Amino acid sequence: MVDWSVVTATTPTTNLTHAECAARAQTVSVQSYRVELDLARAADPDVDSYGSTTTIAFTSSGPETWVDLIADRVLGATLNGEPVDVSTYDGARLPVTGLAPDNELVVRAECAYSRTGEGLHRFTDPVDGATYLYTHFEPTDARRVFANFEQPDLKGAFTFVVTAPADWEIVSGQPEASRTTDGSGALATVTFAPTPPLSTYITAVAAGPYRRFGDTWSVRRADGSAQEIELGVLCRASMVEHFDHEALLEVTRQGLDFFDAAFGYPYPWGKYDQVFVPEYNIGAMENPGLVTFTEQYLPRGKATRPHLMGRASTILHEMAHMWFGDLVTMRWWDGLWLKESFADLMGWHVAAEATEFTDAWTRFASDRKTFAYRQDQLPTTHPVVARVDDLEAARQNFDGITYAKGASALKQLMAYVGQEAFFAGARRYFADHAFGNTEFEDLLAALEGASGRDLSGWAGAWLELAGISELEPFPERGADGVLTRLVIRHTAVELSSGERIDRPHRLVVGLYELVDDRLVRTARIEQDVVGEMTEVPEAAGHRADLVLLNDDDLTYAKVHLDPHSAAVVRDHLASIESPLTRGLLWSIAWNSLRDGNLPPREFLRALPQVLAEQDASIVATALGTAAQAVEVYAPAEQRDELRAHLVATARSGLAQAPAGSDLQKVWAQALIGATATCADGVPDLRGLLDGSRVPEGLDVDDDLRWSARRALAAQDAIALVDLDAALADDDTMTGRTFYLRAVASRPGAAARRQTWERATTDESVTNDQLRALVAGFAEPAGAAAAAEYAEAYFASLTGWWESRSMTMATILVNGLFPRADLAEGALRRPVEHPVVVAGKEWLAAHEEAPAALRRLVVDHVDLALRALVAQQSARLAAAEEGSQG
Ligand SMILES: [Zn+2]
């Protein structure tokens, strides 16, 4: 027995490389896993580990290999009945030698309960003291729970055997096959049915007193076949009153109807459970038969339609993975985009086609794509088809390119080959590769076969070259406003070489005319854009107060407006009938602002258009954008005026919103958000909390109350004893997290010092607690103080990376990056700003730092620089305006 508890999780061998995994797959082939987990004492907080015994049946053509395992201790191992020397275990890998052609390896270990959301997470509910467990493994944290070959192309049939309290829900990806109880009846040992061939990262177990709501889905197909699936949705017992299980199950059934028909391959995983879990790091995870979701999807209070739409899209995204990702899996992490782009596209497509959220594409255009545009303009952007040499790089690629740009490219592909051919290609792909692993070429071949088109040129320009296309219109108008000519300039540059990319775009040009103060589309011209300059002959002769490229959002590109159109949009955006077009125009304004072409003050002059907007989703997006415009892109001396303007606008929006509407809730959230940086809203928030200023119909639920207290805390306008009292009234996980965030949001040097210390040194804080701490610390009201921590930040980076898990280190690196504001009257250029200089110096001095850490720092330095440049041009614009006025 060897005690390896002193080995941290970041021994050098934790970072698996592509090359060594590819070599392992050449010699090893897995038949089955039997994973026995002893969770009998999980409810005892003094017990911090559990027993894990894994039996792996595999063949080998070579004499040796290794298995992956991050355990507190390896208790022992045998290979084909003979003891294995476990003294060579290094905390991440157990070497295995003396392999036969057919092998049975048994590894017994003690593994730690996780508090970071990685591996087997354990959570104790403050409401009732109940213990909840769930696993999260992507990309490579199954090895924190059991010994395995941690790479997606070594699939095996998994049999999970879990011992836990008998009165708990004990679930895995497959149905329960058998159950025994111990003599007292207190403990149950559940053996689950073996899975079909599966990759390690999508295996799953959950256990605890979860509440389960069941249903069935069934289908009788035209070919006479039929299928019935048990459905379940689960949540913590203390969340049941907020659990709208009927709505969740309805979207689930709608999705299964759609995918069953569209994919032509029966749902392959037996049953379909969806469990909502606490302290979850991401939105959701596609474990076949047991999908895990964040509890953020279960608001305490009335959910708005934008919220429900986002949730439906996520449910459908994960469901698409049952086929795309789970049934057919990427060979290595460079194929991550294969599953994520496709699932992301399906999430929005099926929401629009098969649920009540028929306007889902508006959200995709105004919200989801923004994520991609932002990422695609960072120095570290990469092609959708990315090269991923190792695991750390893989983890950093769960990003806007892999998800949103990839989905946008596939959306353009769907327009290019047609929907029918697109789904025919998908059907062929599933039929050809079920339970196997694939690469990009396999999908391309299926799509080419189904569409009869050569897609290599398209794929090269869209998927294999990084960077964003820019589209700019050059309209020539006669004296009467009628177009005499319209030319589109297309710019796209390959970032590494600086060479022009000829990326083909199929897009729509929308021409709009002002009629009775409303912008009305009078022409819709479909246009192929190839090469640098494209003439749009059909546009001539139309009156066009607004020329909008990529109307209807078929393509992915940064679009510009000509000055005349921009001025018209500023005053009439809300009068356009199509919400998709309005969403696009807000997205264009946002890109322009980030480029320093649209000063924040000018952006805020369009706020009356938000007041006139009736789509709650667009209002929420536009207001979020406005807040960032002020806090990040406006020069410091303009902020107070702009903040006051935001508070006043939010107050008006709240006053005029219909009682009980989503708009009312969105405006209330905006007023709360704006008050965090402007004291004008303090009386409003106090009135919300004490009931003296609550607009009719507004449900001031627990979550909204905490948001208000957090904003007041940022203004130093609520006493600590009042926060304590509020916590005593709402001592739930959500209440505790909000409380922590509120306390961390307080300005003042002592409070900030306390927050910094706790976030950076207290390793007992959980993932959610750490997120709350750093979010509070980054509150703009205390930003001036935060700059004092710049030195400590850069000095701490490598230490955090070495001593914390990837999730926790990433929260610290992202959340605590110092703000960069241009000092008033400073002559210094943005590149000479101390934060930018410190960041560049750190990068120069840490060439050998892990690539994933360097990537985060490179991006933050670039974002800081972008903000400083925008601040500077806004200051120049103000000076110009002042001199003209
Ligand atoms: Zn996904």
TrEMBL record:
Annotated ranges, domain ERAP1-like C-terminal: 546-821
Biological processes annotated in GO: peptide catabolic process; proteolysis
Aminopeptidase N-like N-terminal domain: residues covered: 119-202
Gene Ontology molecular function terms on file: alanyl aminopeptidase activity; metalloaminopeptidase activity; peptide binding; zinc ion binding
Peptidase M1 membrane alanine aminopeptidase domain: residues covered: 249-457
Pfam families: ERAP1_C (PF11838), Peptidase_M1 (PF01433), Peptidase_M1_N (PF17900)
CDD domains in the cross-refs: M1_APN (cd09602)
Enzyme nomenclature, EC number: 3.4.11.2
Broadest EC class assigned to this enzyme: hydrolase
Reaction catalyzed: Release of an N-terminal amino acid, Xaa-|-Yaa- from a peptide, amide or arylamide. Xaa is preferably Ala, but may be most amino acids including Pro (slow action). When a terminal hydrophobic residue is followed by a prolyl residue, the two may be released as an intact Xaa-Pro dipeptide
InterPro entries: Aminopeptidase_N-like_N, Aminopeptidase_N-like_N_sf, ERAP1-like_C_dom, Pept_M1_aminopeptidase, Peptidase_M1, Peptidase_M1_aminopeptidases, Peptidase_M1_dom, Peptidase_M4/M1_CTD_sf
Keywords: Aminopeptidase, Hydrolase, Metal-binding, Metalloprotease, Protease, Zinc
Entry-linked NCBIfam families: pepN_strep_liv
Family statement drawn from the similarity comment of this UniProt entry: Belongs to the peptidase M1 family.
Protein name, entry field: Aminopeptidase N
Record organism: Ornithinicoccus hortensis
